[in-house]
Amino acid sequence: MVKQAVKFGIVGVANTIIDFVLLNFFIAIVGWPILLANTLSFSAAVTNSYFMNKYWTFRNNEPTHIRQFSTFALISTVGLILSNILVHYGTELLGTYDFNLTFAWQYNIAKAVSAAIVLAWNFMASKYLVFYERE
């Protein structure tokens, strides 16, 4: 399990980079609202996460993509809802106090906290509900 957790962490770092780059691109360059940007950046990272975790982290070669991806998508939807709540309210909270932070710093700090919490949820749910070993 430790080896899988390390691999999951490596995949998580890659997906976090994808998530943050797209989030900042969608907000700063495209001008989209934070929840739309977060939803799309999170979704892109999650899709990448499914394939990297299926074939590398958990070495799961079962051809059960529909069942597995459906379960993974449901787990990721819970993670997305949690992420959106944390990013939205975290950004608002950081903007409420005079921390002298720009809006970009506010949503990036909120996103970092959110990513850490959602990472733990996603690992446990993926290991035990999606890519578990059948006996």
TrEMBL record:
**What does the UniProt entry say about where the protein is found?**
Membrane
**Chief location of this protein within or outside the cell:** membrane
Please identify the protein, giving its name as recorded. GtrA/DPMS transmembrane domain-containing protein
The record lists the lineage as: Bacteria, Bacteria division Kazan-3B-28
GO cellular component terms, alphabetically, are:
plasma membrane
Task: Classify the protein's membrane topology as the record does.
Answer: Multi-pass membrane protein
Segments traversing the membrane: 20-48, 69-89, 109-130
Q: Where is the GtrA/DPMS transmembrane domain?
A: 7-131
- A Pfam family this protein belongs to? GtrA_DPMS_TM
The family assignment reads: Belongs to the GtrA family.
A Gene Ontology biological process in which this protein takes part is: polysaccharide biosynthetic process
Alphabetic keyword roster:
Membrane, Transmembrane, Transmembrane helix
